[in-house]
Amino acid sequence: METIGIGVVGAGRIAVGYHLPALAAVKGARLVGVADVAPGRAEEIARRFGFEHALTDYRRLLERPDVHAICLLTQYETHREVILAAADAGKHVFTQKPLTGSAAEGEEIVRAVRRAGIRLVTSFMHNYFPETRVVKRLLGDGAIGRLQFLRQRNATHNSYARAVELRGATWDIGPHGIGMIQHLTGARIVRVQAMMDVFNKPPAERDVNDGRPVDTLAVMNYTLSDGRLVNHEVQWTAEAGTLAWNTELFGECGGILLRPHTGEGLVALSQRPPDSEVWAGRGERRSRWEHLPVEPEQPRGLFHHQLFVDDVRFDRYESASPEDGLATLRVLEAAYRSAAEGSAVDIAYCPKSQVPSPKSKDDRCPALDLGLGTWDSRLLSA
Ligand SMILES: NC(=O)c1ccc[n+]([C@@H]2O[C@H](COP(=O)([O-])OP(=O)(O)OC[C@H]3O[C@@H](n4cnc5c(N)ncnc54)[C@H](O)[C@@H]3O)[C@@H](O)[C@H]2O)c1
Fold this sequence. Notes:
By secondary structure, the protein is of the alpha/beta class. It has a domain at 127-292: 2-Layer Sandwich (Dihydrodipicolinate Reductase, domain 2). Helices cover 33% and strands 23% of the residues. The chain has helices at residues 13-25, 41-49, 58-62, 79-89, 103-116, 130-140, 160-166, 169-185, 275-279, 302-314, 322-341, and strands spanning 4-9, 29-35, 53-55, 69-72, 92-95, 120-122, 147-155, 189-197, 208-209, 212-213, 217-224, 229-235, 245-251, 254-258, 267-271, 290-292, 345-346. The strands form 3 sheets. It has a 9-stranded mixed beta sheet. Strands 3-2-1-4-5-6 form a 6-stranded parallel beta sheet, sandwiched between helices. Strands 9-10 form a two-stranded antiparallel ribbon. A hairpin with a 2-residue loop joins strand 9 and strand 10 (212-213). The two termini are 22 Å apart. The chain binds nicotinamide-adenine-dinucleotide. Nicotinamide-adenine-dinucleotide (NAD) is lined by residues 9-15, 35-38, 41, 58, 73-76, 78, 96, 125.
């Protein structure tokens, strides 16, 4: 299809700050309608970004034959209802994170979209920024050899009240790091060991949201499906000027810093002889960091949105799969359980042979857990 029709559901802060400028700039998409329950909001957004229709009820968008896909940019509490309705109407969905409020709901959603044969992409925006694509390409080219360890940090400064409102820091910003780890390593997280805190408040004074204490700080260790280890820090106590969001990757013959501490550029690479050579006395183990050029994209998020639109236009499967969003929910739930129980929590996988292919509407896989077997085919090479 040369041009597809897009409907947007929910036009708040992230819609205006990230998605709408990118959607207005992508090729092959017509902005058919925007729906928002807040009075006057849809009209204002339609005027500003060039939508043809402004609505309050998202179901009116789903009824339209000229809408092929929706961008769901509301809080996660509304996602289940809207995605199930979109699946019923045969519309593809690009949704803000987290996919929904629990892994059980996530499984219900994945089954529904598989049955309907629609695409469902959870927006892990950091995976598609130009700097991340440079890192992904370096890893694919073997620039640091086999990846041995990854350290991920997601930090911001935010209030305790906001943590209570948003269910905790890990629930709110953790999905980005989890999505990034699984994207860059091409593996799933299968074991989680987490410790959490909330601004040093004693447990008795902590608020509870959805049956568990909210957190503002989490340190998590993961085991990946191929046995590698990862460390992930989530925190809302970042001081101004410290690094908020970065990834460090260490391989058998070098390292990559994504958004390095030096502040010089967005990607730094260090290459050296492999350990086996160094230990045999044939080369130095010194790191020499080189900052690599990263072509900025304008507007931010253009690549990410174009990828989804082109998947729908050309019947491709280059974007993330429904299972990617579900996998993140599994890790979040395992993290909260691990922190509460004080022990590591394993995440069950569907055996590779039983995972339906991305093109399949089949939902016979008994667990439909994480789609491990479909992951490799969807890694980005761009
Ligand atoms: N990726 C990021 O960096 C990032 C940053 C901020 C927020 N988010 C995520 O984006 C989502 C939205 O966050 P936000 O800050 O834009 O919230 P927001 O409250 O500013 O916007 C949500 C909008 O959805 C509308 N809405 C609510 N229910 C609706 C319904 N049933 N139908 C139509 N419209 C409806 C609201 O009126 C509001 O305008 C959240 O899930 C949040 O986690 C992501």
